[in-house]
Amino acid sequence: MKKIISIFLILFISNCIYAKNIHVRVWSQYNPRKVILNAFTGDYVLTLGDEKNIRANDGDVIVINAIGTRCSVSKNGDLLGTFSSVQVTTDDDHPYFKMQMLLPSSKTSYYPDNISFSSKDGELAIISSVELNHYVSGVIESEIGNVKNDQLLKVQAVISRTYALKHIDRHKAEGFELCDQVHCQVFHGKARFNSMILPAVDSTHYEVIQDENGDLIEAVFHANCGGQTVNSEDVWSKKRSYLRSVVDTFCITEKQANWRKEIDKEKWLNYISSKSGKATFDPCEFTLQNRITVLPCCSVFTEDVRNDFKLRSTFFNVIDGQDKIILQGRGFGHGVGMCQEGSIRMAQLGIYYKDIIKFYYTNIQIVNINP
Ligand SMILES: [Zn+2]
Ligand SMILES: [Zn+2]
Questions:
Q1: Neighbours of ion ligand 1 (CB under 5 A)
Q2: Residue span of the structural domain in which 299 resides
Q3: Any residues with CB less than 8 A from the CB of 18 and at least 6 apart, and which?
């Protein structure tokens, strides 16, 4: 009996994880005060504070205006009153809303599923309550909109879903779950232009990436690793069993694979000297096959060199030119986790999306949280 209850509980908890909508605060950077809402759906319900529910249809024009701590609401020009909050919900299969900002500026977005409004100090707090896969589709279109490769869209779907659920508590204290900015993941609303996105996301069901202990991973990525990714502890001091350095030949001829920077020799020597605490006249010339974390001649961290000289990566050769030092570099970004250009190349070669994910994240499992 105990066992049956445990299984039921596991199923119930798993169900809760995926069935629940994600609450994303949208447009906060615009300080919206007044918006127009049009529904592209059949019937829907406006829940106005605790006071009343009214029904509306596609074609109805709803205007919501922040006044102090309340929202004034009108429908087709008739004022319905002022309310502490407005919730827009529907039971339709694929509802979405067009939302236009009237104040302070003009902007239009389309949001799937449900949406709600409240007002604080004359400003609207707008929360898009969006089904997880609709959210993931919107993120993918916002971030890599026109990609037409099915395997790559699936890779992005699993990574974006994992990232969202891993960070679901990030804005808890502020009364929502995720923001629509790069801080969480960029979300501009419904995926509307690339018809391949939603089917690709749906076909990955509710798959997420877990580490060997069953915890969601930090699904970090970067533009190009230059041929070898980096251990997490070499960049962030946090060791993660799934963020291990791997050799990647898929990205080495891609756009961001190589870079070059010239530095005045005296400036370089002064830098090496002050960083290492040694008076040195050695420019620290070297050629790398594999990534290193410290310069071989003076124990200066490559991560420090990257930050101090604003380099594209920590993966570079040092060449002694006459009056300058030439850094010949590989890759772009921190180098931890998935290499985007490598993953794109793998997808173009037709490699299965789960194999792409497993190539970049070590000792992981891809688990469907929809039992
Ligand atoms: Zn955020
Ligand atoms: Zn790479």
A1: 179, 183-184
A2: 258-330
A3: 132, 206, 369, 370
